[in-house]
Design brief:
Domain Immunoglobulin: 23-120, 130-214
Number of strands: 19
Keywords: Membrane, Signal, Transmembrane, Transmembrane helix
Order of helices and strands: HEEEEEEEEEEEEEEEEEEEH
InterPro entries: CD300_family_receptors (IPR050671), Ig-like_dom_sf (IPR036179), Ig-like_fold (IPR013783), Ig_sub (IPR003599), Ig_V-set (IPR013106)
Helix content: 25-40%
Region (Disordered): 306-326
CATH topology of the domain at 1-123: Immunoglobulin-like
Distance between the termini: 177 Å
Pfam families: V-set
Largest sheet: 5 strands, mixed
Structural class: alpha+beta
């Protein structure tokens, strides 16, 4: 019995306890980065999660924890709604090989799940240009997983079912094809429920892909009224077959928008009037200056002329006076 117990503890030290679901082997390029999703059970929702580095569970060391600050090398986030925490490893090197997704168990042994990174300086054997894919509800989306690996191709939802050729996962259809070293997955009829983490799988390699599906924006029909609006124009009786009646909205003219437009126009008119008034004032001032200058010149000429005439009169008076003397 003691031998069996010791052997069991030895296996736990090598492999950890599997209450966590994640990838097993991911091919990555040196110098790049990779985000790994770790799905956990509901009972660990409020527990601290962390990334542990090392080949063996009982000797691995903390790399990053959810209650610690992120670093340039490691970052971690926990989505408690979907019960998935993600770890991102940056600036990958050959030493970034063995890691564990782990949950801190207060008063007991922690739980972890091992995953391996195959870091290469060449092109990864299974790769994707972008791990984050976005789409609108009802759209068709194509995901290309470049691969040089052999083995069966599968498309899996993390912690869920897998498809090998075609089928449906959570109401979204998937079709798998392989052409010239490209593992192609076509998603048709996207649904918001299809958002989440998936895995491109080829042989013993996986590549995690996150899909985000959002609702299509609602098209709003704006009806603008004139000064004398036609009442019938405010109540459309015909609706396009492609646009349900429930999505057609009547948008009344915005009072604040009209007031803002009026204020802007009034301000421009005031500025223009002030500029014209300034130009007119400067013109009149220049004209008045010219008139005053001309009047001054004329007045000076008249003064000189009077003085000259006076001098002549005085000269004549002096001559008459001298002629009457004995």
């Amino acid at each position: 019995m003691a031998v069996h117990l010791g052997f069991l503890l030895f296996l736990i030290g090598l492999t950890g306890i599997h209450s966590i679901t994640t990838v097993s082997n991911v091919s990555v390029g040196a110098g790049g980065s990779i985000t790994i999703p770790c799905l956990y059970e509901s009972k660990y929702k409020n527990h601290v999660k962390y990334l542990c580095k090392g080949s063996y569970w009982n000797s691995c060391s903390y790399a990053i924890k959810t209650n610690h600050r992120n670093s340039r090398k490691f970052s971690i986030s926990d989505d408690k709604i979907v019960k998935i925490f993600t770890v991102t490893i940056n600036h990958l090197t050959k030493e970034d090989t063995d890691y564990w997704c782990a949950v801190d168990i207060n008063g007991g042994g922690d739980e972890g799940k091992y995953f391996k990174l195959s870091v290469t300086t060449n092109t990864p054997s299974l790769d994707i240009s972008n791990q984050e894919i976005t789409g609108l509800k009802g759209e068709t989306k194509t995901i290309n997983c470049n691969n040089r690996n052999s083995g069966e191709m599968k498309w899996c939802r993390l912690g869920g079912s897998c498809l090998t050729k075609s089928g449906s996962i959570d109401g979204t259809g998937f079709t798998i094809n392989s052409v010239s070293g490209v593992f192609t997955v076509t998603l048709s009829g996207l649904r918001t429920e299809s958002s989440g983490w998936y895995l491109c799988v080829r042989g013993d390699l996986q590549m995690p892909v996150h899909i985000t599906v959002t609702e299509k924006p609602t098209t709003t029909t704006s009806l603008r009224t004139s000064l004398k609006p036609n009442p019938e124009s405010l109540y459309p009786t015909q609706v396009s077959e492609e646009q349900p009646l429930s999505t057609v909205e009547v948008e009344e003219p915005s009072v604040s928008g009209n007031l803002k437009s009026f204020i802007i126009r009034l301000s421009l008119l005031i500025i223009l009037a002030m500029v014209n008034l300034f130009i007119w004032f400067m013109f009149k001032r220049q004209e008045q200056t010219i008139v005053e200058s001309s009047a001054t010149t004329t007045a000076e000429g008249e003064v000189r002329y009077v003085r000259s005439s006076s001098d002549e009169v005085e000269a004549e008076d002096e001559e008459v006076t001298y002629s009457n003397m004995p």
